[in-house]
Structure formats: structure tokens, C-alpha cells
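As agreed, record minuted below.
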Amino acid sequence: MPAPSARRTAARREEIVEACAQLYAVMPFKKITLGVIGQKTSFTRTSIYNYFCTKEEIFLALLEREYLAWAEDLEALALAAVPAEEFPARFAALLTARGKMLKLMAMNLYDMESGSRLENLVSFKQVYGRALRAVKGCLGRHCGVTEEEAEAFVYAFFPFLFGVYPYTEVTQKQAAAMDAAGVRYRHCSAAELAEAFVRRWLGGRG
């Protein structure tokens, strides 16, 4: 069992990350500062520096939390009894709850990584690697793919994920611009896009 000081540190880090998550739901990345984050916590702004040096590190911890939740869902899916024809939909549906992950990947990943200390980035990459392995595990369990095929899938699927958010969330201003430009826009969910990707990939691997 962790020592009281370790539990307190973890709880305070989580409070900071959760404050950041709540702000990111209603504010753009560039307007969220350590001061703004501090106002949503139960301790002073200066205390944040005991846990994170920059706002980018806080956002990276939020992305790590999102990746971890996704990886855990994927690992559970790999162990579940799922008919082969249902796998693409079940796999894709796991992204429904990962809107923050997709948004951070699409919009702020380089900022977060460049503004974080190496140890924070390593911690994130470890969880990222777990997600990669979990995706491969799902494919191996439910689709009978080889290790080489699973590797090919992740190198196609993860870059695809970076572009999902802009196609699922459009502001009024963006919609008005598309309309004025005569560009047709059809709203899709992340799950719809991901399912279509997986089905096409599985259908074309032969």
C-alpha cells in the first residue's frame, strides 16, 4: 500500500489534472494557464509547481490518463467473447468516451511533448506503448492477424486517429465557412469513422 505522502501526492496530481480536464472542456488550450488551473484546485497556484513545472506537463498527464483508460478498455475487449463480425463496431465504440484524447492528439500533442520534462514524457510514452500493445492484442484475439499485420495496422490506425477529432467536432464558425465555400460537410462520430476504417482494413488485408 502506498505511503500516506505518496497517496497525497497522487491525489493532488489527480486534482490538478481533473481541473485541467474541466477547463479544457470549455476553454481553448492557449487560454488555460497555471493560474487558471490553480483557481480550480483546493491549494495555491504556487503549490502546483510541486507536481508540474508547466501547463504542458499537466495536459500531457491528462492525455496519459485518457490513453490509460482506453488501453484498459482495449485489454478488456481482448478478453471478451466477441463474434468476428461484431469486432469492428465494438473496437470503434471504445472511442466514444475518448473525446478528450482525440482532441489533445489532434490539436496539442507537439506543444505538450515539447513543453514537458523527459521523465513526464517517458511516463506518457509507456502508457502509449501499452495502448499500442492492447490494440495488437485485440486484433490477434479477434481477427487472427499476424504480428506483422498487427504492426501494419497500428502504423495506419494511429495516424488516422490524429485526424478524427476535426471531422467529429465542428464549430459554428467552421460550419459557416464550409457552407459559404460550398463544401459539403457530413457529421460523423469517432466510432463511425473508426469502424469504417477497421472494416476496410480487415477486408483489404487479404
